[in-house]
Amino acid sequence: MRHVATLLLGIAMLLPSVAQSEPPQGSSECRHLTTQINFFAIRKGRAQELGNELWEERLDQHLQNLVERRAQRCEGFSDSDQAWEALDKLVQIAAKGAVTFFTLGAF
Fold it and tell me: Do residues 36 and 62 make contact, with C-beta atoms less than 8 angstroms apart?
């Protein structure tokens, strides 16, 4: 129980600093580019599974273009993206601990 309380206290201390940080300039465009990169990376995996070399080559070129465009327009976006992913994992762990705590260990 002390571990859960410590974890929840840690989250409570981190949230104000995350809320005060400003999103990078052009963040909606950066999120959109990141979504596109993830989408086409999945499609590239599908092309590899099917053995379609032409499709795979074209997707690889498109992915390189998207990554370059994001690097030019979104300085530091990947760093903030990693911070949000880490915060998301922390919140998931805290939620699991809270469920266990409030159900008295039933779940």
Answer: no
pTM over 0.70, yes/no: no
Q: CA-CA distance, 55 to 63, in Å (whole number)?
A: 12
* Angle ∠(27,32,36) on CA atoms, nearest 5: 145
Domain contains 46: yes
Nearest to 77 by CA among 26, 10, 5: 26
In which domain, by residue range, is 10 found?
Answer: 1-16+78-107
- CA dist., res. 13 & res. 94, Å (int): 13
pLDDT string in tens for the chain (107-residue length): 666 666 555 666 665 554 444 444 557 888 898 889 989 988 888 888 889 899 899 999 999 999 899 888 887 665 556 667 777 888 889 989 888 889 988 87
CA distance 62 to 78: 19
